[in-house]
Amino acid sequence: MLLRDRILPALNLTVSQAAQDLATTRQNLHRILAGRSAITPEMSLRLERFCGIPAAFWLERQQEYDLSRAQHALSGSPAVKCQHLLPDAVLIQLGASHER
């Protein structure tokens, strides 16, 4: 994990020191580092103040991690084709896209 493998070593901080600076418990930080707890919006703001990396970055990484885990969990399920394709004009209005 980025925080465990790159950030804390680069700052030369222990988990206990980082937890104190983040105003959280060492146990909570350990759960985050182990992938057992999510980085919440509140924690992302704490991380931004902690090391200067924007809160949105942390939330995007969390979302990517969550999506990857969900895809892995559903990998054994039969593939489902999209049942209702939206018109391109609606997708543009939404700022979304899908592969056709």
Describe the model.
The protein contains 6 helices and no strands. With 100 residues, it is mostly helical. It has a single domain, classed as Orthogonal Bundle (434 Repressor (Amino-terminal Domain)), CATH 1.10.260. The chain is elongated. The mean pLDDT is 92.
- What is the number of domains? 1
> What percent of the residues sit in helical stretches (DSSP H or I)?
55-70%
Order of helices and strands: HHHHHH
- At CATH level 3, the topology is 434 Repressor (Amino-terminal Domain)
Number of helices: 6
> Separation of termini?
34 Å
Strand content: under 5%
Major beta sheet summary: none
Low-pLDDT ranges:
none
Q: Give the overall form.
A: elongated
Summed up:
With about 100 residues, the chain is an all-alpha fold. It is about 65% helix and about 0% strand. It comes from Teichococcus vastitatis.
Layout of secondary structure:
Elements: H1 2-11, H2 15-21, H3 26-33, H4 41-51, H5 55-74, H6 88-94
Based on the model shown, name its key terms:
0% strand; 100 residues; 434 Repressor (Amino-terminal Domain); mainly alpha
